[in-house]
Amino acid sequence: MDKIRFLIESSKKVIRDCSLENGAIVAARSDKADYPKEAKHYTYVWPRDAAYICVAAMKAGIKDIQEPFFQWCLERAEGFSEIGLFYEKYYVNGLKAQARFQVDQTATVIWAVHEFCRGDEAKQRKYKQLVMKAADAISCRWNGTCFVDVTNDLWEERYTFPDQEENFTYSLAACIRGLICANEMFPNPDWLISADSMRQRLDEHYDPERGHFTRTFGKIHDKRIDASMLGLVFPFEIIPADDERMKNTVKAIEEKLNIDGGIHRYEHDEYDGWMYHTLHRKKGAGGWPILNFWAALYYDSLGDRENFNRHFNWVLEKVDKHLPEQIFDNDIQVSVSPLAWSHAMFLFCCERKGLL
Q1: What are the tens digits of pLDDT across the range 73-82?
Q2: Close Cβ partners of 109 (under 8 Å, ≥ 6 residues apart)
Q3: Closest Cα to residue 231, out of 337, 59, 348?
Q4: 20 to 30 Å CA-CA from 38: which of 9, 119, 134, 274?
């Protein structure tokens, strides 16, 4: 229990450190003395990461970073005022650092605004422009089958193409929830029509032969399992935790992606974030604390305390004062650490344990 309490305070400090004066919330502070020299530079704003961080921080009693971040999104994030979508990542001053679209990021920011402003209409009105612009952009770019733009997945490694009528399962779930959240704040039937269409499309992403939701569905399916499918339950609540399709999906994640207790993103993942000067080594991924905590949250939704503790404790047994991006099975590879998103997912788990 002492270690959990210590890590709660450590998580609060990491989140504070990553929340900058201008409202930007970065994934990690590469300039800090304890940031590994050979780890990849992560002092960028990924709106998705920041959205998770905002909500987790609120659970931990930190309530003064969210509004500056939402203002940063509206006023600084390059391209948002024109198109209503966020680019993949940003420099802290708001200039785009990568021009690809990860549509889940825009939707997750809407979800974060909804969580922060829940039940407070006056507070919601402050972010009407942000929410409506984002929801309109998501809805208008949905053609009933797929998005009209090329999109990038949350791991920044794959694309979907409109001519192939493809969608990433995680991204689609995020957009459904984002549009529902937007409608709860500022009712718009067009958003619900789009969300319903997306939900119908998402149901097609389940492969009964393989027994799990697939990573991508379209004219050519990517039928592989991906740990991001956990997002269908938390935070997006698209598929109930006790739905047999979801149970089967988590079973597949456990069978194929759980390596010695640590959950990997997908099979044969090479990314490790370990650098040799400017070259990325790619010597093989480790287990991601984010994903173990995500699995723990899934099991908590089922009321399965044993498996919640199994995933939660696996991380705690392997970390000291900070939560990294990855945990390796050797002392050679170096991970980004601390990673604010890892700390955010830890705080979500602590809330479920009644420790916040």
Answers
A1: 999 999 999 9
A2: 47, 48, 50, 51, 70, 73, 86, 130, 134, 178
A3: 348
A4: 9
